[in-house]
Design brief:
Elements (H helix, E strand, L loop, with lengths): L2 E18 L4 E14 L4 E6 L6 H12 L11 H11 L7 H21 L4 H4 L6 E2 L1 E4 L9 H14 L3 E5 L24 H14 L5 E5 L6 H14 L4 E2 L7 H10 L4 E3 L6 H9 L5 E2 L8 H14 L12 H12 L7 E4 L4 H4 L8 E2 L2 E3 L12 H7 L7
Parallel strand pairs: 5-6, 5-11, 6-7, 7-8, 8-9, 9-10
Antiparallel strand pairs: 1-2, 2-3, 4-13, 12-13
Helix pairs in contact: 1-3, 2-3, 5-6, 6-7, 7-8, 9-10
């Protein structure tokens, strides 16, 4: 079997209203879907993260730079192909767009292998479970969304059967050093640190006796501010504190983890397994959060998961993209003994709910792994046609 085509499909969904976390403003959400064709008629699906930049940059990296290392190769020789891409792109940078682009290719290659041998990927990797408990991931900042609104939002998730919900924090320009104000649309829906504490406390109280609240700082605070706020979060009973400091500040994250009794989780925005080695070995986090579409695909994330297992750390992947990303991370979690709950984005997003012919659903508090070969999903072509874009919007 040989690879005959490598294609990147760019999809975009425009929000009716913008949402924001500590540093990022979303008026639209994009997805880059990878399709790899073979001479046996088997097509593999993958997804590459395109956070923080134009999706066509990622698509170009896939089709114009990395495809040459994949075309003509046996798609089951995944280690060889990854080695070719890794060293062939070494001067173009480690991590970032390059690593995300390789992620989508890697996922699509594994999808081909699973389809070839008629086995779901989580079983191919050595299944641990066939169902995963999801947590509700939302609680973004938004215009006309006050403290009562976000508290009602998380309470609603508990009524739906969730036991955990995560909300955003740290969109606070009054912090000691705040990169928020330097971001595009950095003045959108900002709050004071005191208001942020009130926001979190209202959510904790809204779910008391029913579930737990997690908070996500999205890299915005210094270690000092993260510890200061984290001590308040601990008193409230927050379950974990995600990405409290800058991804590059491994020693700062370790300082926060030592200072607080609550678990520190991260770092989704770290694409390199080599940096995850440092994050894990220095215990800069208590919960490890790579992303299959960002951290090199299944091969690289499984290395991260294995390292975490050796240090007795749970793995809770970041999942905030299309249905392909969701299912890929489900296969990862279901195949490792230290997998934990699944991040399930609750924002309106058709590229998550309508992109596949059989959407992922919650049944009795769990999501079930697809039992079809490979990823076990097929694209809904009507949804692809509706949201596909062919020119880079300016």
């Amino acid at each position: 079997m040989k690879v005959t085509s490598v294609k990147a499909i760019v999809l975009s969904y425009q929000y009716d209203y913008a949402i924001a976390d500590a540093l990022n403003y979303f008026s639209k959400r994009n997805a880059v879907i990878v399709q790899i064709g073979t001479d046996e008629g088997i097509t593999g699906l993958g997804e590459s993260a395109c956070f923080g930049g134009p999706p066509f940059t990622t698509a170009s990296m896939i089709e114009d730079e990395l495809a040459k290392y994949v075309l003509g190769e046996d798609p089951t020789n995944i280690k060889r192909i990854m080695q070719r891409m890794w060293y062939g792109s070494r001067h173009h940078g480690r991590g970032g767009v390059t690593q995300a682009s390789m992620s989508g290719i890697n996922i699509a290659l594994w999808d081909i292998v699973g389809k070839k041998i008629q086995t779901p990927l989580y079983k191919l990797f050595g299944a641990y479970t066939d169902k995963i408990e999801p947590y509700a991931s939302s609680g973004f900042y938004r215009e006309n969304k006050d403290i009562r609104d976000v508290a009602n939002e998380v309470a609603g998730y508990m009524d739906e059967g969730f036991r955990f919900a995560k909300i955003k924090c740290a969109r606070t320009p009054d912090a000691m050093i705040s990169p928020t104000k330097d971001m595009p649309d950095g003045n959108y829906c900002t709050v004071s640190m005191e208001e942020d504490l009130a926001r979190v406390e209202a959510c904790v109280n809204a779910v008391k006796g029913k579930g737990k609240i997690m908070v996500d700082g999205n890299n915005a605070w210094t270690p000092f501010d993260a510890i200061l706020m984290g001590r308040n979060f601990e008193k409230m009973g927050v379950y974990w504190f995600e990405e409290p400091v800058a991804t590059d500040d491994v020693s700062g994250s370790a300082e926060v983890a030592r200072a607080l009794d609550m678990p520190i989780s991260g770092y989704e925005s770290e694409p390199s397994p080599f940096r995850f080695r440092d994050i894990i070995s220095t215990r800069a986090v208590d919960i490890v959060q790579p992303d299959v579409i960002w951290t090199g695909g299944f091969d690289e994330v499984r290395k991260v998961a294995a390292m975490a297992e050796l240090f007795h750390m749970p793995v809770v992947p970041h999942v905030f993209a299309s249905a392909v990303c969701l299912v890929a991370n489900m296969h990862l979690i279901a195949s490792i003994p230290n997998g934990n709950i699944l991040e399930l984005d609750r924002n309106v997003y058709p590229l998550r709910d309508e992109l596949t012919t059989e959407p992922i659903e919650i049944i009795d508090g769990f999501v079930r792994l697809p039992n079809k070969p490979g990823l076990g999903i097929e694209l809904n072509e009507d949804t692809v046609k509706k949201y596909q874009i062919f020119e880079n919007p300016r």
